[in-house]
Amino acid sequence: SVHCGIGCFTRSGWYKIDQASQEAKYREHSGSILNENPDLITMGSFQDEPVYYEGSYRLSVDTQADLMFVRTLVEALQKSDDIISFESILQYLKENPEVCALNQHVRQKTVDEKSTKILMAVQAGEHYGTGHLARCQSLARMLEEYFSVGVTFWLDTEEPDFHANFKAQGYTVVDDNVSLMETLRQQSFHRLVIDFRDPISHSFMQAVRLAQPNLPIIVLDNNGVGCATADAVIFPNAHAKPNSEWSLENTKVYQGASYALLGPGLLYDDDSVEPIGPLDLPTIFITMGGSDPELISEHILEMFKDVENCHIDLVVPPLYAHPENLEKIATRMPSTVTLHWKVRNLRPLMDRATVAVSAFGVTAYELAYRGIPTILLGHSQAKEDDMKRFSLWGSAISVGWWKNVEKEALLSLVFDLIQNLEKRKEMSNKGKALVDGIGPQRVAEVIMATTRQPIPLKQE
């Protein structure tokens, strides 16, 4: 039927199945032994109403896409506490094929396939920002939905809400009081993916290897000296420069914008996010990342305080220390300003922007993907070389470390772009050519293909 049907067994028949199902795959999928041994018991079948045989739908909940699918059904059909009838579900799906498309792409693991478990260790929070966590969400969805992989997150964060929020979204998350090494000692995984902002050291890698010696390790976007002992290092960008001290005899390195990992809001449709239309005024989109501990947002907004005849969309960082300062500045400005709080999806704001002013990071690649001409500034002086290398691709203009940015120079760049349609088109086309949005698939393929390469570890 539409969802595998229902099987009923006699006690003696089930005893035969139990005795024959000695392999793990048969123990996990009860009754699957009958696919290869149909004569093990006497079987019969009958068909229910024709409605249960019309169409092919995926009604399991194993992935983020499945969860979105079921939540859509519940929102559309739930009335008070009544049970939703199967007939009403099928009728709704028949009338709304776009809902079926939410999870039809999910690949179902076969009975013969071994389960693959991946642990993603990610740094996120006020100190680290949220860009790395968002891109790992996209990667996790790719692994779960197209490669039938189970993904568990371990979060290095001082923000307890991150764990609760992530679990509420349907992700599997290690408890916040369990260390990474203890997690590796307690559970068995087939791959470890590390996305840390802090440089990875030899001693850290040594501890990981001791906790689970045969575990393939894939590192994302890290230049620490310890990365040379990983099994693979992926730089999902066009600006990275691998550490010159690395000796990469056994470590594979993958680099380039073709591996760019964008947040799920850029790559996946979300029906809960309302599109917003363009404005008649030039629109300046300002975002300084997920934390902005140095309060750059209000520094940049101050630079625009006398600007007229434009609209400013400013994304308030989720962990911003003094949002009231932004409100005070915005209410005194001659141009219209919208402060956007707790934004789940930046894509609608990006798409209505004439130009963007952004901190350098994952967002720079997301803006390039959407074709938005961008003025980039860095949170730290150490990022200036990376920003220069990125700006060579033509989708953005780097102005360097934010503390060195002068008001007149920034405003001149912004309004020169607003008035130069051809320049904006050129930058937009170069951004779209640089980032094609297929990065998560390429990174997932690298992760699945990576195997353990024994490497002698150095002491620091």
Explain what the structure shows.
By secondary structure, this protein is of the alpha/beta class. It is built from 18 helices and 13 strands. It has helices at 11-20, 24-28, 64-77, 86-95, 97-100, 131-147, 160-168, 180-186, 202-211, 264-267, 296-303, 323-331, 347-351, 362-370, 384-391, 407-419, 421-434, 439-449; strands at residues 116-123, 149-156, 172-173, 191-195, 217-220, 232-235, 252-255, 283-287, 311-315, 336-340, 355-359, 374-378, 396-401. Strands 3-2-1-4-5-6-7 form a seven-stranded parallel sheet, with helices on one face. A six-stranded parallel sheet has the order 10-9-8-11-12-13, with helices on both faces.
Task: Note the topology.
Blueprint: H1 11-20, H2 24-28, H3 64-77, H4 86-95, H5 97-100, E1 116-123, H6 131-147, E2 149-156, H7 160-168, E3 172-173, H8 180-186, E4 191-195, H9 202-211, E5 217-220, E6 232-235, E7 252-255, H10 264-267, E8 283-287, H11 296-303, E9 311-315, H12 323-331, E10 336-340, H13 347-351, E11 355-359, H14 362-370, E12 374-378, H15 384-391, E13 396-401, H16 407-419, H17 421-434, H18 439-449
Parallel strand pairs: 1-2, 1-4, 2-3, 4-5, 5-6, 6-7, 8-9, 8-11, 9-10, 11-12, 12-13
Helix pairs in contact: 6-18, 11-12, 14-17
Name the assembly state.
single chain
In order across it, which strands form the biggest sheet? 3-2-1-4-5-6-7
Q: Which stretches are low in confidence, meaning pLDDT under 50 for 5 or more residues running?
A: none
Strand count, sense and closure of the main sheet? Answer: 7 strands, parallel
Count of DSSP-assigned helices: 18
Structural class: alpha/beta
Rounded mean pLDDT is 89
Radius of gyration: 26 Å
N→C terminal distance: 61 Å
The helical percent reads: 25-40%
Strand content: 5-15%
Strands, count: 13
3D shape: globular
